[in-house]
């Protein structure tokens, strides 16, 4: 088969970028039977996108082809999601399978697959950018009409799609996995990263500052335990005026991927009681880093966490506070359980399961 995959979002440092890079790299590495067309478009980041694509295909040129074009995402959105013109074959030639990105759904005669990571703009429109909500609604309407298979990372997202009218027979559940860079690191690796971000002593880690990340309640829980515990709260993400953070709360802003393993491994625990996630990858990253986790007792977080996290009611500051204290007290047991859970997930498995979906094009 000839399989085309849109990697346009690989350069943005998001969860979708992470998924795309790991999946495509592993597919090309493992699959000796098919040929791949690595396709993408960007204007301002054209050279960066082209370099990323070339790096992925560098050692597998005999079974991969790179096609990167200098057009911006908003143009792709207009042409493909609004007008729904310009078949993908006009740009990359005939293919048997086309795996589209999270953003754009071009028309194609190929067996069409897309990955839906979550439904935040649809389920939570009041806390999402109105333009993003409109784009996702258009995209989902096209997906419902034309996409042959939809890949999702969790049972939660399967149920969400079915609830808004999608046919469950077209949905395939394929969990994601932590990157191999997440592991237990030695102090000599952790300390330089802590110094870089001016983190002194023990700290709890939390990821993200979007409204659904529940940071206000996390900070409130931290303020309750701070008087009795010499520990800081380190936040990966930008500070905004909506957060009233006192002493001990450190906002790191955007953190490059290569610094995250040290931040995970060096933390006392990950506090991640999100209100909604399509999967909850930071939970597995913490497990792989031998770091205990406090997360939500709902949705995909509960699903991914298994019995290895301290599960809390994300809407209750009391519950989050208690969960933090319990996780610290039961640290050794949670680390052991987390290690066992993390071993169930790998990008090898994710790639093999995705390839099985591609193979459905033959039937």
TrEMBL record:
Residues 15-175 form the Glycosyltransferase subfamily 4-like N-terminal domain. SUPFAM superfamilies: UDP-Glycosyltransferase/glycogen phosphorylase. It comes from the Bacteria. GO terms for molecular function: glycosyltransferase activity. Keywords: Transferase. InterPro entries: Glyco_trans_1, Glyco_trans_4-like_N. Pfam families: Glyco_transf_4, Glycos_transf_1. GO terms for biological process: lipopolysaccharide biosynthetic process. The keyword Transferase applies. The keyword Zinc does not apply. Residues 205-333 form the Glycosyl transferase family domain. PANTHER family: GLYCOSYLTRANSFERASE WBBK-RELATED. This is Glycosyl transferase family 1 domain-containing protein. It comes from Candidatus Woesebacteria bacterium RIFCSPHIGHO2_01_FULL_40_22.
């Amino acid at each position: 088969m000839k399989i085309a995959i849109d990697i346009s979002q690989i350069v943005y440092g998001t969860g979708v970028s992470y998924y795309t890079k790991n999946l495509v790299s592993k597919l090309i590495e493992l699959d000796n039977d098919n040929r791949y067309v690595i396709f993408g478009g960007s204007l301002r980041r054209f050279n960066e996108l082209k370099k990323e694509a070339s790096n992925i295909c560098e050692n597998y040129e005999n079974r991969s082809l790179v096609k990167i074009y200098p057009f911006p995402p908003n143009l792709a959105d207009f042409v493909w999601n609004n007008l729904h013109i310009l078949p993908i074959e006009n740009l990359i030639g005939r293919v048997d399978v086309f795996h589209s990105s999270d953003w754009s759904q071009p028309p194609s005669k190929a067996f069409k697959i897309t990955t839906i990571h979550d439904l935040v703009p649809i389920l939570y429109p009041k806390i999402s950018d109105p333009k993003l909500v409109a784009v996702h609604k258009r995209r989902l309407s096209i997906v419902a009409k034309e996409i042959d298979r939809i890949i999702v990372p969790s049972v939660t997202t399967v149920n969400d799609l079915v609830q808004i009218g999608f046919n469950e027979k077209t949905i395939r559940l394929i969990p994601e996995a932590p990157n191999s860079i997440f592991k237990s690191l030695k102090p000599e690796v952790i300390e330089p990263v802590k110094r870089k971000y001016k983190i002194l002593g023990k700290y709890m880690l939390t990821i993200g500052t979007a409204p659904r990340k529940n940071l206000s309640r996390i900070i409130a829980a931290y303020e309750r335990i701070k008087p009795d515990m010499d520990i800081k709260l380190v936040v990966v993400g930008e500070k905004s005026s909506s957060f009233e953070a006192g002493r001990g709360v450190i906002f790191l802003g955007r953190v490059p991927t290569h610094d995250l393993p040290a931040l995970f491994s060096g933390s006392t625990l990950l506090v991640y009681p999100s209100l909604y996630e399509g999967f909850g990858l930071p939970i597995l990253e913490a497990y792989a880093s031998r770091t205990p986790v406090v997360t939500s007792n709902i949705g995909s977080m509960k699903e991914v966490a298994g019995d290895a996290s301290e599960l809390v009611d994300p809407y209750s500051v009391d519950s989050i506070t208690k969960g933090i204290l319990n996780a610290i007290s039961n640290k050794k047991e949670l680390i052991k359980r987390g290690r066992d859970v993390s071993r169930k997930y790998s990008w090898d498995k994710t790639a093999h399961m995705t390839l099985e979906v591609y193979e459905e094009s033959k039937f």
